[in-house]
Amino acid sequence: MKFYNLLIKYRLWIGLVLIAAGGYVNYSAGFWPGFPLYLVGVILVLGHFFFGPLRLIQEYMESGDMEGAEKVLSSIQFPGLLYKPIRSVYFTLKGNIAMMKQDFEGAEKNMKKGLDLGMPMKEAEGASMLQMGMLFMQKNDLKQAESYIRGALRKGLPDKENESAAYLQLCSIMMNKREFRAAKEFFRKAKGLKPTTPQIVDQIKQIEKYISRMPG
Fold first, then answer.
1. Residue by residue, what is the 3-state secondary structure of the chain?
2. Which residues contact 15 (CB under 8 A, 6 or more apart)?
3. Less packed terminus of the chain by CB within 10 Å, N or C?
4. What is the pTM of this model?
């Protein structure tokens, strides 16, 4: 795994060295002896531009090193050359990092680009739409927030934690709109999923204190 990560990190330079070596072998011994070096070198260079180093980000994201993840993203100088599904992930990750930095304008811009390109899996698209909904919640644009969160639930979410978070956000929106019956229904669905994420559990406890006193 470490070898593979090193190969991804340095494959552009390895590819260029192999192409140069192929040129030397071609000059000294002929084209066909140098052809394997040309071939591997070109594959590595094209892989650098078409697939990028996004695999390296997983390690940083899992350890919570957002600075490291951002450095990997910044190393991609030509995102327009990335294979379309990978380009979508690239913009989504940029949006996630921008949101963590409270850069809501940058987050919205990049996450919309990711969604417009289409996500490789429906669950990933649903998760991205949920994040967009939460972004609009932060901006207090409840209409857009509701639209994205409902869309996320329709597309499907990767796990019950995300699904529960989506229902809690809809519950909050309905409470704000004074649609108390709908708020109670969304709260019931969120709680019924039995989430374990501390933030979601705490949110459920806070809402539970007064939701039973609501009319409807």
1. CHHHHHHHHHHHHHHHHHHHHHHHHHHHHCHHHHHHHHHHHHHHHHHHHHCCCCHHHHHHHHCCCHHHHHHHHHCCCCHHHCCHHHHHHHHHHHHHHHHHCCCHHHHHHHHHHHHHHCCCCHHHHHHHHHHHHHHHHHCCCHHHHHHHHHHHHHHCCCCHHHHHHHHHHHHHHHHHCCCHHHHHHHHHHHHHCCCCCHHHHHHHHHHHHHHCCCCC
2. 40, 41, 42, 43, 44, 45, 47, 48
3. N
4. 0.77
Q: What is the pLDDT of residues 104-139, one digit of tens each?
A: 889 999 999 998 888 766 678 888 999 999 999 988
Q: Where are the domains of the chain?
A: 1-50
- Rounded CA gap, 79 and 91, in Å? 9
Q: Contact, 116 vs 85, CB < 8 A?
A: no
SS (H, E, C) 174-214: HHHCCCHHHHHHHHHHHHHCCCCCHHHHHHHHHHHHHHCCC
